[in-house]
Amino acid sequence: MKRYSAFAIAREAFRFHSGWERAWKSPTPKAEYDVVIVGAGGHGLATAYYLAKNHGITNVAVLEKGWLGGGNTGRNTTIIRSNYLQDESAAIFELSRTLYEGLSQDLNYNIMFSPRGVLMLAQTEHELRAWKRTSHANRLAGIQSEMVTPKRIKEIVPIIETDGPRYPVLGGLWQERGGTARHDAVAWGYARGASDRGVDIIQQCEVTGIDKTGAKVTGVQTSKGAIKCKQLCVVVAGSSGVLADMAGFRLPVESMALQALVSEPIKPVLDCVIMANTVHGYLSQSDKGELVIGGGSDGFNNYTQRGSFHHVEETVRALIETFPVISRLKQLRQWGGIVDMTGDRSPIIGKTPVEGMFINCGWGTGGFKSIPGSGWATAEMLADGAPRDLAAPFSMDRFKEGRMIDESVAAAVAH
Ligand SMILES: Cc1cc2nc3c(=O)[nH]c(=O)nc-3n(C[C@H](O)[C@H](O)[C@H](O)COP(=O)(O)OP(=O)(O)OC[C@H]3O[C@@H](n4cnc5c(N)ncnc54)[C@H](O)[C@@H]3O)c2cc1C
Q1: On the CB side of 27, how many CA atoms lie within 13 Å of its CA?
Q2: At 414, is the pLDDT very low, low, confident or very high (cuts 50, 70, 90)?
Q3: Which pLDDT score is estimated for 297?
Q4: Which of the residues 95, 280, 289, 310 has the least number of beta carbons within 10 Å of its own beta carbon?
Q5: Best of 43, 50, 72 to mutate for ligand 1, by most ligand atoms within 8 A of CB?
């Protein structure tokens, strides 16, 4: 595939942009692959990319029922940070954050990574203690994060009201090297890189059944016919329970909608990401000027990929107290995605009860930031047939063995 460069843009300008190739191919599925990945979200595509790049495994298909990146990967609020509490999470999220730093160069695709800093407010004594504990844990894990005072917070975010009537700002956990990236570009960049290395990305191809001989997976039934495979990796976020059901087992996940909204575009007022977990809201400003606003997930299980009025009202009402400046803004649009939540708010990466079938799910409200690290770890697992150090703690067995990786403080609301 031709490289994108300033020179290529200049060359194409002279020939009316007629020479650009399609970013990825759209092949007809083959009858059989070594590896079939279900779900062309960021995690599925990154897995395919690192399988090809790091392990030379290219007889791979990524099957997507809609369009690539059309699931949560194209619906999230793009927060990237690695200041999680537990060592196992810190390892995979920090690898991810580090990979994000060089991802545009690696993929030769501008993913618009913007390390603008992520600030998590403490608005109760309890939260202050929790963030202090997290900052100590981060220091022990070699991850940059620091506690900041209300005075420093006001310097970082001049629009904030730190003396709110109900929840004054008592401090915050600041990760200066966190930030955002363009979500579609992450999916498109991985798709282009994987396709260039020989991976088949097949859109409009829904998996409707999983074929087994005894306890071993042999292939999948799809809307484009049967496809055989030696290994199957299911990476479908909120639809994970549906795919597990097809294979004959249950997953310890719940699916529910998580919503977000954007305001009309305004002049730059906010140059970091800020989260207020006590009141259930967070915001950042997009490059176009819109305020990107999100809150907690719906309080009931559902498969609805859309927003609701009560959610907008709750989230905006919560944020106005701390950010009165947003009170007169108009909302431009809202949407929802189906997230897959585990009991300990940590993901599942590992083998399943079906031989040859692997799963990557349970990233819940916070799996955009982990796409590179998760793809890296899942590719290692598929190449070896078993998870390596990075993924091993996240096996499904932990729920039987009581080995939880409790990130409920880090992930319950904040992303
Ligand atoms: C509103 C919102 C805000 C969020 N904010 C953040 C944030 O700020 N930071 C952060 O880190 N995370 C955030 N997240 C979470 C993050 O978006 C997800 O954890 C992440 O994108 C999951 O990626 P994925 O590749 O696993 O899933 P997805 O991107 O959902 O991809 C799964 C794909 O599988 C496909 N699929 C499903 N069933 C089938 C089938 N039967 N056959 C074929 N294909 C199938 C779907 O169509 C979909 O494209 C947010 C999520 C939402 C909804």
Answers
A1: 14
A2: low
A3: 87
A4: 310
A5: 72
If residue 209 lies in a helix (H) or strand (E), which one and from where to where?
strand 207-213
Give the pLDDT confidence of 223-260 residue by residue, as tens digits.
Answer: 999 999 999 999 999 999 999 999 999 999 999 999 99
Interval between CA 65 and ligand 1 midpoint (Å): 13
Report the separation in Å between the CA atom of 100 and the middle of ligand 1, taken as the mean of its atom positions. Answer: 18
String of DSSP letters for 268-282: ----SEEEETTTTEE
Percent of the chain topping pLDDT 70: 98
Quick check: CB of 209 below 6 Å from ligand 1? no
pTM metric for this prediction: 0.97
Is 72 a pocket residue for ligand 1 (Cβ < 6 Å)?
yes
Q: Whose CA is nearest to atom 3 of ligand 1?
A: 76
Domain with CATH 3.50.50.60 in the chain: 28-109+182-253+346-411
| Residues 6+ positions from 155 with CB-CB distance below 8 Å | none
Q: Which two tokens stand for residue 358?
A: 């692997």
| CATH class of the domain at 28-109+182-253+346-411 | alpha beta
Tens digits of residue pLDDT in 286-345: 999 999 999 888 889 999 888 888 888 989 998 998 999 999 999 999 999 999 999 999
